[in-house]
Write the structure tokens for this entry.
Amino acid sequence: MLVACANQSKPHNPTPGPTPANAPAIYAEATSTPAPELTPTATRHPIPIGTPTLDPPRPVPASSAMTVTYTVQRGDTLSGIAYATGTTPDELQRLNGLRNPNALQVGQQLLIRRQIEGRTPSVKLIPDSELVNGPTAAEFDTAAFISRQGGYLGRYTEVVAGEMLTGAQIVQRVAEQFSVHPRILLAALEHVGGWVTRAQPSDDQLRYPLGYKRTNREGLNVQLNWAALRLNEGYYGWRLNTRSYVRLDDGTYFAIGEGVNAGTAGLQNYLAAISTVPDWPEIAENDGDRAFIHTYRRLFGNPWQYDFGPLVPDDLKQPPFVLPWRKGEMWYFTGGPHSAWGAGTPWGALDFTPVTVAGCTELEDWVTAVADGVITRSVRGEVGQSLDPSRDERIGWSVLYLHIGSRNRVPVGTQVRAGDPIGHPSCEGGLAAAAHVHLARKYNGEWINAQGKVPFDLEGWVAVEGAREYDGALVNGDLRREPCECKYPDLNGIVR
């Protein structure tokens, strides 16, 4: 089971030369970056330059209290959850009808009763296309932009999963993995840590450059992973109507303001997590020197110049997909709809394995392509495939194959057809209990839920969500297969 995608990392403080401890902040001049010229495939929606309009209001809690949900993670305890959410174990046990408080399960949803102290500002801060690593990111050169600013980030290096990476490579890596726009990550890194333009941030900014202080692990990679989780959590919670609140760092809850969009909800969710009640209004507003959007504009200009419009059309249909293994073989359905990449993303992924024994040894069996396309990414257990003529996984349909072992893994640039080999199942690329393949879809960079308007369909096997992550089913006419960490042909076995 995929339970996490963050890797252990170790920071390295660069020493390019002597720098005074009290070096002044060096700011780049404000720019108004022109809207990128996209490929013909990406221009299905023109990019307007202007100001946003309010979305139709959504129902929000009318009372001063609301029930929110918490998803149990590996290693959680009831007392730990109570402490983190500002309640008590007894209250959690009562509200959720828990007979045994020590029998929590990963993926279990717990109800938490919280007081709502107000609303977030009813103002759009960014378009959806500035939060998602989609078409408007295709022409943005992260490394070149960082280099031009002359800040600390341009000199930074860190060991991530045994590999020495530059600051630009870490930003790009997180943007690719979580499918979060590099511009919003850079703006957050500058707003909190000053890393983009300052030659020497303060000691506190060096330790917590994205504001994540509830950890004893340091380094840019950890901080960016956490920020990307918060951005996605708010974005998809708003898109799927499963989250209508933000939680401040001091435990205060606010209902999301009326008329905002998913991109703004995602940004507000991150900003809330690094704010307390006294400083929240200045940070979350649309104006003022302390406002986040002021930092964004200083780096990139008006965010609405990049507004791509709806990333996912209402009439979107999935192209034909085949099962990701060779014809005639039986594989086992081991994970129903669950997070595509990290907590907060839609339940857009499915898991399969061919083996009858558990373990993380890379298998001999082949994972195969589900559709025609080109390989855009092949590293650290991740294989990204673009199905779009642009050959860019940020544009149109794309597929992620995760836990693909390094041996015989298909190289970047390979044109594959449905059924062609991708690589072998393993545990590489995240935490897993056994070798398998984790399969997920994106459209214009947005993770697509396995059930909904565009159901996950593999040769007629259609995904159905369960009450919890990893539950659910695949249904094909009168046939039904249910996920299980087991290998029973009549329960979860599927022959292609």
Q: What stands out?
A: The CA atoms of residues 55 and 259 lie 5 Å apart. DSSP finds eleven helices and 22 strands in the chain.
